[in-house]
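Help!! Second protein's tokens look totally different from the first
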Amino acid sequence: MRTTTCLSNKYKHFISKSTQSKALNAMMKKETLPGVVCLITLLHVCFFSAAAVSGQNQTCRPSSCGDALNIIDPFRLKTDPSGCGDRRYELACENNRTVLNLYSGKYYVEEINYKNYTIRVVDQGLKKGDCLSPPLYDLNFEKFSYDDPYAWPYYWKFRTTILMSCSKQVNENNKFIPIIPCNSSNGGNSSSSSQSYHYALTGDGDSLQVGDLPGSCTIGKTIYSEMGGDSEPEIRSMSDLQDQILLGIKLSFLQIRCFRECKAKGENCNMDYNANSVQCEDPNACKDWYDCGRPEWLRSVVIILLLIFASIYTAIIAGGLIVRGLIGAVLCYIIYKLRQRHISKHDSNKDISLVNHYSQP
């Protein structure tokens, strides 16, 4: 009987220890489960974030169009994903040439300088060859406005080339360069009575004057191009001229910084194209000492004092004019009286002399 009781107690003790172990494991699992869930969630978030960043970098990678140009933000090609670049700086790829559509004209992009915020473009009509091709489009300063994506700063140096047709030959040293226009069927050397001679006059945009043209010449197209710098060789032939005008024009896209740094916050923007910098300006900020932090009552006092001062000053000026007028009138009256007196005395003396003359026997 004692043996049975001891076995029963041992069995109960074993069951109790087994139950406690299971309960402990259950509690551990219950406490560990939220931590595991949080860890898995964190790993998922990190994975998808890294995938999103990787996908974005892969989607907006630099573009090119067969001409070794590195096309990155803010520029984009028409075929790039919609989230890449800025649509105001969208370029096209035509026949393996990067093309800028600007003011209804098409221009080949020759260079993009992201450090200086400049882009150099050339008219599609300009080509190197045995004849001089005129530009297809007329790009000049007047087409650009302040809010346009591109700017042509007026103080940047540029070269102006004027194409002309003359009825007589022009011989003035090397000032006028003989050219063969591509649209001339006879190369400008016809033997008919309508023979014409074609020349180009080129120089700095500021120094070139229309008065330099001979009277027998009519002006054709005008071509603007970038100045080659101080080391630029002298232009002596049509080939030299073609090399120069094919440099194209350099435009600034510094406006993108204005769009993103200033105008996006509702602020005005001042651009320095030489320093390639922008300065934002709060349109509601004070412009001078009168607007800067002055209370309203003080402004009213200042206005009243200015009005009083203006009234006194006007009165002084007007009083001075009146006094001068009165003094002038008095002087005129005195002079008039003295003159009348002098005339009266003269007449009296004349009458006395006449009486004495007639009274003598």
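Here's the second one for comparison:
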Amino acid sequence: MASTSTASCPTKGGDGLYSYTQNSLFQREGVENAFVLINEGITEKLDLEQILSLSASKAFTVADLGCSVGPNSVIAVQNIIESVKLKYQSFDTNKIQDDLEFHVLFNDLVSNDFNTLFKSLPPDRQYFAAGVPGRFQGRLFPKASLHFVHSSYALHWLPNTPKELMDKNSPAFNKGRIYYNNSAKEVGEVYSAQYAKHMESFLGARAEELIVGGLMAIVLVCLPDDIPPSQCTASGITDLLEAALLDMAKEGFVSEDKVDSFNVPRYNPTPRELEGFIKKNACFSIERMEPIFPSKTKLDMASDNELMVSHLRAVWEGILEEHFGAEIMDELFDRFLRKLVESSPFSQRFKPKHMIELFVLLKRNLC
């Protein structure tokens, strides 16, 4: 039986009730909170004159990886462009900003709703735009063609879950569970090994594509160092989803085998793990790595159960629908909401301090 895959399961497209367009406020705040850090990084770490001198044309190329359907991607790249323009003008106040052209490459899975993304692009935008379908774990762009890479809330997704999770003869067989948080240690180990391969491929591809001196900004939800997965926010969420699926299996909505063969294709690394992956690659220097702290507004949103489930549905429905079928989605998320409302221990544990929204700025070095 095939492992759970994100290959054909992007966030929910369109602009309907459960679309990512309507349900990505949590991610939007993180993207906006990173603006200042990105601006400071461009001001302090980007040698614009040098990298433009290495380019055939005076064009600055930005890639956003895991762009989804917008509008968060659009505001992120606009901030990058405005910051680069200010940097460019700072060389010489007589410089005309129109001298520098911008090319923005929006990347996501082949089945992503790029049409909705393109509709959200500002009509007066000052950049050329293109969509680039494909997995960002591999090469997407020509060598040394990018000047700035941005990715937010995407790098925790695995292209596939480890095959050992469905092997009945493996100590990592994850029967009756859909994640690694409360499973045998072997389950967590194969998840971790799979993520290490994912990051090795991701960083290797970006090292080929980024020009020397180029920057990469990442916003990623991480598990704090030295905190067991079972004590984190992601654990509580997946426990409730798992419970809803197991109830539905007992009542005949889905088969037990279907539940046993489903594993969430996601891994939240710790900052220490992430730092290790980057150092192992050796083509990037870590210019900045620090947490982004949620505002009171975001904390209030996190306590709104219906809002929380709508946001999770916009992200998870594609993966769940691919595996279990569209016909059970309303029932599944209704049950998930009820369990969220009824779960007082979960509501006590569900505090964003148990997860870290980490900002990372990397610079492409000679290697």
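Reply: Different proteins will give different token patterns, so don't panic. Residues 349-353 have pLDDT under 50 and may be disordered.
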